[in-house]
């Protein structure tokens, strides 16, 4: 590895410039917990999405991922609460296996109009595959 002379005379390794990070649709990542009333609190995520309290929302489920989108319909029974909370309906909880006390990861993607909720164990499983590939299985 080539070295560079430090002004005080200490040799330091020269590091190759790192490529810039790839642009991501995700503007914010947050972690929250599903409370005993099936509510998720994460005001910062809703602010990042530009959703004020009272914003009607709709849920879509794909595998273990819950995609939440703002709707124009005032008829939606699901809304962002005044305290920055949303309620996860029973059908969403059943489809994802979420239980009170479970950690979830929220991914805010305002350019796509989607706030994704992913159960933390699903993220852990995906990362385990990457880490096992890097360091080998335990």
Explain this structure.
The chain is of the alpha+beta class and about 140 residues long. Helix content is about 20%, strand content about 30%. It has a five-stranded antiparallel beta sheet. Strands 1-2 form a two-stranded antiparallel sheet. A hairpin with a 4-residue loop joins strand 8 and strand 9. The mean pLDDT is about 85.
Write the layout of secondary structure elements.
Blueprint: E1 3-5, E2 11-13, E3 28-33, E4 39-41, H1 43-49, E5 57-62, E6 65-70, E7 85-87, H2 90-96, E8 103-109, E9 114-119, H3 120-135
Antiparallel strand pairs: 1-2, 3-8, 4-7, 5-6, 6-9, 8-9
Q: What Rg do the Cα atoms give?
A: 21 Å
Order of helices and strands: EEEEHEEEHEEH
Helix amount: 10-25%
- The total strand number stands at 9
Spans of at least 5 consecutive residues whose pLDDT stays below 50 are: none
Structural class: alpha+beta
The side-by-side strand order for the widest beta sheet comes to 3-8-9-6-5
> How would a textbook summarize the main sheet?
5 strands, antiparallel
Give the end-to-end Cα distance, rounded to a whole number of Å: 31 Å
- Taken as a percent bin, the fraction of beta residues is 25-35%
Q: Based on Cα principal axes, name the global outline.
A: globular
Q: Total number of helical segments? A: 3
Average pLDDT works out at: 86
